[in-house]
Protein backbone atom coordinates (compact mmCIF):
# COMPACT_ATOMS: atom_id res chain seq x y z
CA UNK A 1 0.00 0.00 0.00
CA UNK A 2 1.01 3.64 -0.51
CA UNK A 3 0.54 4.32 3.21
CA UNK A 4 3.11 1.68 4.07
CA UNK A 5 5.62 3.19 1.65
CA UNK A 6 5.10 6.64 3.17
CA UNK A 7 5.94 5.27 6.60
CA UNK A 8 9.42 4.32 5.32
CA UNK A 9 10.28 7.89 4.27
CA UNK A 10 12.43 9.53 6.98
CA UNK A 11 10.81 12.63 8.44
CA UNK A 12 12.78 15.70 9.57
CA UNK A 13 12.11 16.94 13.07
CA UNK A 14 10.76 20.46 13.54
CA UNK A 15 14.12 21.47 15.06
CA UNK A 16 16.03 20.19 12.01
CA UNK A 17 13.61 21.94 9.65
CA UNK A 18 14.06 25.19 11.55
CA UNK A 19 17.85 24.84 11.39
CA UNK A 20 17.68 24.18 7.64
CA UNK A 21 15.46 27.21 7.13
CA UNK A 22 17.90 29.37 9.09
CA UNK A 23 20.81 28.04 7.00
CA UNK A 24 19.05 28.88 3.73
CA UNK A 25 18.11 32.34 4.97
CA UNK A 26 21.75 33.01 5.92
CA UNK A 27 22.84 31.76 2.50
CA UNK A 28 20.37 34.09 0.79
CA UNK A 29 21.66 36.96 2.93
CA UNK A 30 25.27 36.19 1.93
CA UNK A 31 24.31 36.02 -1.75
CA UNK A 32 22.51 39.35 -1.34
CA UNK A 33 25.64 40.86 0.19
CA UNK A 34 27.65 39.65 -2.79
CA UNK A 35 25.44 41.46 -5.25
CA UNK A 36 25.28 44.66 -3.22
CA UNK A 37 27.42 47.65 -4.04
CA UNK A 38 30.96 47.62 -2.73
CA UNK A 39 31.34 43.84 -2.57
CA UNK A 40 34.94 42.76 -3.14
CA UNK A 41 35.06 39.62 -5.27
CA UNK A 42 38.63 38.98 -4.10
CA UNK A 43 37.89 38.99 -0.37
CA UNK A 44 38.52 35.70 1.41
CA UNK A 45 35.19 33.95 1.83
CA UNK A 46 33.61 35.57 -1.25
CA UNK A 47 33.65 32.01 -2.57
CA UNK A 48 32.72 29.74 0.30
CA UNK A 49 34.66 26.66 1.43
CA UNK A 50 33.38 23.41 -0.01
CA UNK A 51 34.45 20.70 2.44
CA UNK A 52 33.87 17.88 -0.05
CA UNK A 53 36.76 19.30 -2.08
CA UNK A 54 38.84 19.56 1.11
CA UNK A 55 38.74 23.35 1.02
CA UNK A 56 39.84 25.28 4.10
CA UNK A 57 40.61 28.97 3.68
CA UNK A 58 43.48 30.65 5.50
CA UNK A 59 42.85 33.30 8.10
CA UNK A 60 43.16 36.85 6.80
CA UNK A 61 46.47 37.29 8.67
CA UNK A 62 47.98 34.10 7.21
CA UNK A 63 46.83 34.91 3.66
CA UNK A 64 48.33 38.41 4.00
CA UNK A 65 51.63 37.02 5.28
CA UNK A 66 51.92 34.44 2.49
CA UNK A 67 50.93 36.98 -0.17
CA UNK A 68 53.56 39.44 1.09
CA UNK A 69 56.18 36.68 1.06
CA UNK A 70 55.22 35.71 -2.50
CA UNK A 71 55.57 39.29 -3.78
CA UNK A 72 58.99 39.68 -2.14
CA UNK A 73 60.18 36.32 -3.46
CA UNK A 74 58.90 36.98 -6.98
CA UNK A 75 60.55 40.40 -7.20
CA UNK A 76 59.52 43.40 -9.29
CA UNK A 77 57.59 42.30 -12.35
CA UNK A 78 57.55 38.73 -11.05
CA UNK A 79 55.09 35.98 -11.89
CA UNK A 80 53.32 34.05 -9.11
CA UNK A 81 51.35 30.80 -9.47
CA UNK A 82 48.93 29.71 -6.75
CA UNK A 83 48.13 25.99 -6.93
CA UNK A 84 45.09 25.03 -4.84
CA UNK A 85 45.73 28.13 -2.69
CA UNK A 86 42.87 30.47 -3.61
CA UNK A 87 42.94 32.57 -0.44
CA UNK A 88 46.55 33.59 -1.20
CA UNK A 89 45.53 34.45 -4.77
CA UNK A 90 42.63 36.55 -3.46
CA UNK A 91 44.87 38.39 -1.02
CA UNK A 92 47.37 39.11 -3.79
CA UNK A 93 44.59 40.54 -5.95
CA UNK A 94 43.38 42.75 -3.10
CA UNK A 95 46.69 44.57 -3.18
CA UNK A 96 46.69 47.73 -5.25
CA UNK A 97 50.01 46.83 -6.86
CA UNK A 98 50.71 46.21 -10.52
CA UNK A 99 54.36 45.12 -10.47
CA UNK A 100 53.60 41.39 -10.40
CA UNK A 101 51.22 38.99 -12.14
CA UNK A 102 49.44 36.01 -10.65
CA UNK A 103 47.34 33.06 -11.75
CA UNK A 104 45.26 30.52 -9.85
CA UNK A 105 45.28 26.81 -10.66
CA UNK A 106 42.14 25.24 -9.20
CA UNK A 107 39.89 22.21 -9.63
CA UNK A 108 36.87 24.17 -8.40
CA UNK A 109 35.39 25.89 -11.44
CA UNK A 110 33.67 28.52 -9.27
CA UNK A 111 37.00 30.33 -9.41
CA UNK A 112 36.56 30.80 -13.17
CA UNK A 113 34.92 34.12 -12.18
CA UNK A 114 38.51 35.39 -12.13
CA UNK A 115 38.70 35.14 -15.90
CA UNK A 116 41.94 34.49 -17.73
CA UNK A 117 43.89 34.18 -14.48
CA UNK A 118 41.93 31.01 -13.64
CA UNK A 119 43.42 27.73 -14.87
CA UNK A 120 41.46 24.51 -14.37
CA UNK A 121 43.75 22.07 -12.56
CA UNK A 122 43.37 18.43 -11.56
CA UNK A 123 46.33 17.10 -9.58
CA UNK A 124 45.62 13.63 -11.01
CA UNK A 125 46.84 15.02 -14.34
CA UNK A 126 49.73 17.19 -13.15
CA UNK A 127 51.03 18.27 -16.55
CA UNK A 128 47.68 18.66 -18.31
CA UNK A 129 47.92 22.44 -18.28
CA UNK A 130 46.96 25.32 -20.52
CA UNK A 131 49.37 25.82 -23.42
CA UNK A 132 50.38 29.31 -22.32
CA UNK A 133 51.69 27.98 -18.98
CA UNK A 134 55.23 27.48 -20.16
CA UNK A 135 57.81 25.44 -18.22
CA UNK A 136 59.80 27.36 -15.60
CA UNK A 137 57.86 30.57 -16.27
CA UNK A 138 56.95 31.52 -12.69
CA UNK A 139 59.30 33.19 -10.21
CA UNK A 140 57.57 31.44 -7.31
CA UNK A 141 54.93 28.74 -7.02
CA UNK A 142 52.74 28.57 -3.90
CA UNK A 143 50.94 25.26 -3.47
CA UNK A 144 48.56 23.78 -0.94
CA UNK A 145 47.76 20.21 -2.08
CA UNK A 146 44.14 19.41 -1.18
CA UNK A 147 44.85 16.07 0.52
CA UNK A 148 47.41 14.90 3.08
CA UNK A 149 48.56 11.94 1.04
CA UNK A 150 51.88 11.07 -0.55
CA UNK A 151 50.20 10.48 -3.91
CA UNK A 152 48.60 13.94 -3.92
CA UNK A 153 51.86 15.64 -2.90
CA UNK A 154 53.92 13.69 -5.44
CA UNK A 155 51.62 14.61 -8.32
CA UNK A 156 51.29 18.25 -7.26
CA UNK A 157 55.10 18.35 -6.99
CA UNK A 158 55.32 17.49 -10.70
CA UNK A 159 53.26 20.58 -11.52
CA UNK A 160 55.27 22.77 -9.14
CA UNK A 161 58.61 21.70 -10.61
CA UNK A 162 57.32 22.18 -14.13
CA UNK A 163 56.14 25.76 -13.49
CA UNK A 164 58.73 27.26 -11.14
CA UNK A 165 62.00 28.90 -12.05
CA UNK A 166 63.22 27.64 -8.68
CA UNK A 167 61.36 29.09 -5.70
CA UNK A 168 58.72 26.96 -3.99
CA UNK A 169 56.41 27.77 -1.07
CA UNK A 170 54.48 24.68 0.02
CA UNK A 171 51.70 24.65 2.61
CA UNK A 172 50.67 21.27 3.96
CA UNK A 173 50.46 19.21 7.11
CA UNK A 174 53.39 18.76 9.49
CA UNK A 175 53.03 15.00 8.91
CA UNK A 176 54.16 15.55 5.30
CA UNK A 177 57.59 16.96 6.24
CA UNK A 178 59.55 13.93 5.05
CA UNK A 179 57.65 13.65 1.76
CA UNK A 180 57.94 17.41 1.14
CA UNK A 181 61.73 17.14 1.41
CA UNK A 182 61.74 14.01 -0.77
CA UNK A 183 59.72 15.38 -3.68
CA UNK A 184 60.48 19.12 -3.56
CA UNK A 185 63.61 19.61 -1.47
CA UNK A 186 61.81 22.05 0.82
CA UNK A 187 62.34 22.62 4.55
CA UNK A 188 59.84 23.51 7.27
CA UNK A 189 59.60 27.20 8.26
CA UNK A 190 59.04 28.64 11.74
CA UNK A 191 55.91 30.44 10.54
CA UNK A 192 52.75 28.51 11.42
CA UNK A 193 49.82 29.18 9.08
CA UNK A 194 46.33 29.48 10.53
CA UNK A 195 42.95 28.79 8.94
CA UNK A 196 39.64 30.57 9.35
CA UNK A 197 38.36 27.29 10.83
CA UNK A 198 40.53 25.23 13.17
CA UNK A 199 41.91 22.09 11.54
CA UNK A 200 42.59 18.85 13.35
CA UNK A 201 45.96 18.42 11.62
CA UNK A 202 48.96 20.61 12.41
CA UNK A 203 49.69 22.75 9.37
CA UNK A 204 53.08 24.14 8.30
CA UNK A 205 54.89 26.02 5.51
CA UNK A 206 57.94 24.73 3.64
CA UNK A 207 60.35 26.57 1.34
CA UNK A 208 63.51 25.89 -0.68
CA UNK A 209 64.97 29.42 -0.45
CA UNK A 210 65.88 32.01 2.19
CA UNK A 211 62.44 33.36 3.08
CA UNK A 212 60.88 35.83 5.49
CA UNK A 213 58.88 33.01 7.11
CA UNK A 214 61.63 32.04 9.57
Automatic annotation (TrEMBL):
Catalyzed chemical reaction(s): L-lysyl-[protein] + 3 S-adenosyl-L-methionine = N(6),N(6),N(6)-trimethyl-L-lysyl-[protein] + 3 S-adenosyl-L-homocysteine + 3 H(+)
Signal peptide range: none
Cell location: Cytoplasm
InterPro entries tied to this protein: DNA_methylase_N6_adenine_CS, Efm5/EEF1AKMT1, Mlase_EEF1AKMT1/ZCCHC4, SAM-dependent_MTases_sf
Pfam families for this protein: N6-adenineMlase
GO cellular component: cytoplasm
One term of GO molecular function: protein-lysine N-methyltransferase activity
Keyword Methyltransferase assigned: yes
Keyword match Methyltransferase: yes
GO biological process: methylation
Keyword set, alphabetical order: Cytoplasm, Methyltransferase, Transferase
Xref: PROSITE patterns: N6_MTASE
Protein name: EFMT1 methyltransferase
Amino acid sequence: KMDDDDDDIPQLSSRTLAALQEFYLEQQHREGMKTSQGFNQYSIGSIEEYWQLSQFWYSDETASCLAKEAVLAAGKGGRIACISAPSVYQKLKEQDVEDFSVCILEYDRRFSVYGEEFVFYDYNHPLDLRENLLPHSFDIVIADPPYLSEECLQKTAETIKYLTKGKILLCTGAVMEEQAAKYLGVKMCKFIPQHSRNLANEFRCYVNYASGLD
